[in-house]
Structures are given as C-alpha cells and as structure tokens.
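haha ok so turns out i had the wrong file open the whole time. this is the CORRECT one, sorry everyone. sequence first:
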Amino acid sequence: MSADTIAAIATAPGRGGVAIVRVSGDLALSALEALTGLKDPKPRFAYFKTFALNQEPLDEGVVLYFKAPHSYTGEDVVEFQGHAGNIAPQRVLSALLKLPGIRMAEPGEFTKRAFLNGKLDLTAAEAVEDLISAGSESAAKAALSSLEGRFEERLNAITEKLTNFRVRIEACLDFPEEHEDFFDSGAAAADLAAIKADAQAAFDSANQGVKLNEGARLVLAGAPNAGKSSLLNALAGADKAIVTNIPGTTRDVLSVNIEVGGIPVVITDTAGLRDNPGDEIEAIGIKRALTELKKADLVLLMADRTASGEAAAQSLQQIKEQLGSDLKLLVLKSKADLKADPSFNAMMESELFAALPQISLSVKSADGLDALRKELQQALGIMPTAGVYSARRRHLQALQDCLDAVERCEWQLAQGDLVLCAREAAIAAEHLSAITGKITSDEILGRIFSTFCIGK
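then structure:
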C-alpha cells in the first residue's frame, strides 16, 4: 500500500450546490491545517472555514475530518465541502497539490485503498462504480445490494461449505484407519450436489446482475413502412422517430434508451430493407441498418401483415445474410388492426418462418404490446430483479470455473480418489475467493479500479 497522501475532486464537475475535494493519507490533517488554520479538529465534526493558501482565499465552506481507521479509505480523510462549479473546487485541489507529499489520486484510488485496508471486499468496491453508473432503478438497487455485502455473504456461505467438505475429506486421508467411522460417501455426494446448486443459483443471479449493468441491444428491422418507427415511439413513450406513410422515411440509425423488466435496453430504429433504394441517401441508410444487426442481442423483424409476404421474406433473407447461423430474432406481425394479405399469412406458415417466434401487434390500438414486453423479457433472459446483486463478467467466469471444479470434484468422489476430490474442492473455493478479493493479483486490481472516477 502506497504511503502517499492523495487528493481529488469527489463530485461531478459543473454547476451544483456543493463540491467536495477529498484528501486521504497521513498528511490529510496537515493539509487541513494548511488551508484552514484548524488544529486538532474533532473527528466527524463540521467546521465552517475559509479555504486559503499563503493568505490567498480560495473558497469557503465546511471541512470534515475522519480519523483512521473510521473513514471510507481506512486512512485519515479530510473533505473540503465548498461551492460547486468548474473553478472553485479546482482552485482548492490545485492548492492541495502544491503541498509537499500530496499528489493527485489515480482513478478509483480512494476505493482501492478502502479495499486494501479491509473496509470493503472487492464485490462491494466494484459496486461503488456500478451504483454511480447505474442506468436504471433496478441496476441501482442491485449495486446497493452488493455494496451492503449481500453478494459477498452468498459467496462466503458457499466457500464455507466447500471448506467443511474438504476438511472431512482430508481427515479421511490423514486418518485412513478411521475412514469408515466418520465418512459417508453418499452424504458427501449429497453435500456436493447442494454446493453445486448454491453455486448455480449464485451464477444465475450474477448473470442477471451483469445484464443490469451492461443492458441489452434491440434492433428494429424490416421492409419500408412496416411500422418500425411507430413501434419505437410506442416503446419509448414519446415521438422519437418521424412517422409518415411514405416508404423510406427513416434514412439513418436512431437509438433510444428504454427499460424492459428493469433492464436498460437500447432499441435502434433502422432504414427499411429493400433491394432497390430510392436514392443514394436511402442506400447508405440500408447499409448502416445491416451493420447494426450485428450489434443486436435480439433483432425485431417488423413484418407488415397488409403487405405481400414476399416483402417479409426478402427482409429475413437480408438479415440471415448478415448474421448467418447466429440468428436471434423475433418476428413482429404489425398492423394487426387491419386485414392481412392472404400471401402474408401463407408466408408466416411456410418453412421459412414457421420455426421463428411470432407476435401479432398493432401500435395504433396497442394490442399485443404487453405480450411483446413479456416476450422480450424471456428472449433476453430477464428474470425478476428481487434478490439480484450487481455483477461483472469476471464474476461470471469465476463462478463458472467454480462450477466446473465442483463437477470434477463429484467425478473424483465417484471414482474414490479422495486426494483429487479434495484438490478440486480447494480449487472451487479459490475461484470464489478471487471474486471477493481474498485471492487477487495486482494486475486484476489495476484493471478493476482504472475504470473508476478519479475522486472515488
């Protein structure tokens, strides 16, 4: 752990009520005295002071002192809470950085010090950043759950079970003459099955947490005038896209942020797909539409029920050419309030479309929109968010590695090889410890905290 004292602005730049400049380290009290003249401050007591250096006033406001180890970082911490804006907090920070032994904090360094000083486990430290960047209320709740230690508690419970299991196995190895007296292979297998179920449940919750953080991407595709822009406006709850009866109205990509089942979703409207665009601008729009398809977690193919089935088939063929076998698609049969073209119904029942999920809807009457939202949740793998905690891709990988090790442990137990069985149980526990930070390399820590804001 660095002995440096660090400083940074902890609040967002721009106009506001209050800006906080934070200092952490052994020289925090010296910095407080240098800028305010205050000596021996009472911890957690607010003092109204003028901030100045070399008799030059910088700002005025409240200062707070948090004595180690009872602070966010576990070190001595001082906060200068002055006026917001772009100038005043920067002047205070610049003055602090002129003091000997104080340097600018690196991104996430305050939270990194909190982790290294045992104030937070790694899942809680990551949750700080997730809470700040949460794109939905559900994501914020999940991040707060991790920040409060729920994720760590769940992982620690599984680790404890793995440790107890390994202790029993190793006792058998150390005292083989008493093996039959206290070891039941059937009970051990049942214990492993329970551990595996717990780890799988943790994986499923973490997977949902990743979706809360990363969100999902939907792309609307289909022939011109199929109703894509109308659906975008309906899902967004506002007129985001221009809607006319003229085919080819949408010329460019238009993305809107919405929520589906508490998950932040970016839904993108694209130019109508057809082989013969009306002009060069529309042709560019179609090219961009095809490019957007590759970014989608799910493609919504708008198929106009009042048009020929051939138009829908042509759009599907263009989508397949872009995505190949990696096709995740939902067919939306639009304009359900109008009479369908006979060839359209025949096309939807044909071999080309029959295996694809289909929903009939009308944006005009709102029929089918609720069914669409439910289908989107299922297609995107969105579960109820109650009990979900914030998670990241590295957590998923570690949990999957844990599950793989438990499965190998089960196999070794069935083969009667208790040495390798105990080893796999230890490996499974190590993967869980990597999530909470009990076993973590400096390189991984550097990557994690480099994504944080500087003042966090």
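Residues 185-214 form the longest helix (30 residues).
again sry for the mixup
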